[in-house]
Amino acid sequence: MEKMLTGCAHTLKKCRMVSVLTGAGISAESGISTFRGKGGLWEKYDPEDLATIDGFNRDPERFWRWFDERRIEVSRAEPNPAHLALAEMEKHFELFAVITQNIDGLHAAARSSLIIELHGNIWRVRCTRDNELSENRDIPLREIPPRCYCGAILRPDVVLFGEPLDPATLNRAYILSETCNAMLVVGTSAVVYPAAHLPLIAKRAGAYIIEVNPEVTPLTPICDFSFREKASVILPELKRLLE
């Protein structure tokens, strides 16, 4: 492991531009429940009822009671050593971007500078009447469903099943994938598209692909380095070797 870490750090030192793709695995180490896999939320709840735009429109009160539980859980979480290591690693590169599938805001809490939130942010809400965005950090929510000052129901500013990703946000992620010299892929199952396509774009453009995941993923065969360990173990060591 130490030899591979040293080799990986040596490779990264040759890079000017690094992009990072993070998934639920990095936040799970901060105590946030994952959705897929053993023990994931979808073993307990039906995503068709609780994570789709149709489910929201059908019963916004039920949706928000479930989503309020998620917000309470996230409010208790802190950035773990993996989040903190990524924030500290950025000083070694001309450009260091974190592209995340997570909605918890932990990369921002860790002080990463350039963050692309593919699926939105749990602390932002959007008016269903005029699309106006605002922040809401009430824990628990003061009313369910929460309402805009105009009286319309608010919805979370996150991508629900059945909705496309924001085109501008996705385009930024594509550009950062096409232009990076290396991409770190951390804690993602690499099965949810279009996010899972980003490492493939980077690879085709000639970037090194570095995977950190306790489990083998569909991406593993094309990786230049693949670490079967938790991100909170690998990333602090990688950061140390870059010093």
Shape: elongated
- Annotated CATH architecture of the largest domain: 3-Layer(aba) Sandwich
Please provide the count of β strands. Answer: 9
Strand order of the largest sheet: 3-2-1-7-8-9
Overall mean pLDDT: 92
Q: Determine the N-to-C terminus distance.
A: 18 Å
SS-based class:
alpha/beta
* Sheet having the most strands: 6 strands, parallel
Structural Rg:
18 Å
Explain this structure to me?
This protein has 243 residues and is an alpha/beta fold. The protein folds into two domains: 151 residues, TPP-binding domain (Rossmann fold); 81 residues, SIR2/SIRT2 'Small Domain' (2-Layer Sandwich), CATH 3.30.1600. The protein is 36% helix and 19% strand. The strands form two sheets. A six-stranded parallel sheet has the order 3-2-1-7-8-9, with helices on both faces. Helix 9 links the parallel strand 7 and strand 8. Helix 1 packs across helix 10, helix 6 runs parallel beside helix 10 and helix 8 runs parallel beside helix 9. The longest helix is centred in the first third of the chain and has 16 residues. The protein is elongated, with a radius of gyration of 18 Å. The two termini are 18 Å apart. 37% of the residues are buried. About 3% of the residues have low confidence.
Entry summary:
This protein is an alpha/beta fold. The chain has 10 helices and 9 strands.
Per-chain topology:
Blueprint: H1 2-12, E1 17-22, H2 24-28, H3 47-50, H4 53-58, H5 60-75, H6 81-89, E2 95-100, H7 106-109, E3 114-117, E4 120-127, E5 133-135, E6 154-158, H8 167-179, E7 182-186, H9 198-204, E8 208-212, E9 225-227, H10 231-242
Parallel strand pairs: 1-2, 1-7, 2-3, 7-8, 8-9
Antiparallel strand pairs: 4-5, 4-6
Helix pairs in contact: 1-10, 6-10, 8-9
